[in-house]
Amino acid sequence: MKIGIGLPNQVRDVRAAVIPEWARRSEQAGFSSLGTLGRIAYPGVMDTVALAAAAGATSTIGLLTTVLLGPVWPSVILAKEAASIDAVSGGRFTLGLGLGGRPDDFVVEGLGPRGTGKRLDADIEMFRRVWAGENVPGSDRAAVPAGSRQVPMLFGGMAQASFNRVARAGDGCVGATVPAPMVAPVFESVRAAWREAGREGSPRLVAIAYFAFGDIDAARANVYDYYIALGDETADLGAAGVSAGADAVRATIDSFAEIGADELIFHPALDSLDEMARLAEVAL
């Protein structure tokens, strides 16, 4: 199982200037990928901006969103953003997409929090068309340079519709930030949907978890704050799930390896570069 690390783009009130250096040092340490979390109505840095900065500071490490809220974006704009990150990184980007569950993240007029599943399915078709170099609807121009590729896509979600979306249109899935025993049935359902769809090979299964080594109370408070819009129960689960310290990080690695994750992305709950360095010492 590969071990990646998240950028601190959605740590509450992140010191945004740390992101490029975080990315550079993470690549040097040997992490497999740099991931992002995504919200709009939150004092962090946009996923696409964080990964563009990371792309410029690195040359080999993978880049992925775990996950970006697809339906909050106009589809052509998001398709161009994704293709642009993929291009400037030299083809290192994977677009992880989720539906979103917080109404305040849907800030674009006409793109509300209802009907997001059907909208995402339509958006995926538009992404494919844009990446293939077709003209933007209503224009005689393409949105991306000639030679742009079809960006790999992963999908989050814990419902059958999400599993079917992976099998129909994706390369794999991203598990939720919950303990491995809660992610295990999701992974198995994705595998089953993949087989039933007649797909060759296996889906890419990415797990995510939070970690902290320094001020654990502050770390848990940050994670709680990030999820409180979904209610106290979800926020409490997220805060309690922070892998706090070396032993907890090792136990988290073992638990996700046991359920067959291909990659585990540890997201930081604090934005100190020391956090990244300490995770590397323990996890790599």
TrEMBL record:
<dbReference type="InterPro" id="IPR050172">
    <property type="entry name" value="SsuD_RutA_monooxygenase"/>
</dbReference>
<keyword id="KW-0503">Monooxygenase</keyword>
<keyword id="KW-0560">Oxidoreductase</keyword>
<keyword id="KW-0288">FMN</keyword>
<feature type="domain" description="Luciferase-like">
    <location>
        <begin position="15"/>
        <end position="247"/>
    </location>
</feature>
<dbReference type="Pfam" id="PF00296">
    <property type="entry name" value="Bac_luciferase"/>
</dbReference>
<keyword id="KW-0285">Flavoprotein</keyword>
<dbReference type="InterPro" id="IPR036661">
    <property type="entry name" value="Luciferase-like_sf"/>
</dbReference>
<protein>
    <submittedName>
        <fullName>Luciferase</fullName>
    </submittedName>
</protein>
<dbReference type="InterPro" id="IPR011251">
    <property type="entry name" value="Luciferase-like_dom"/>
</dbReference>
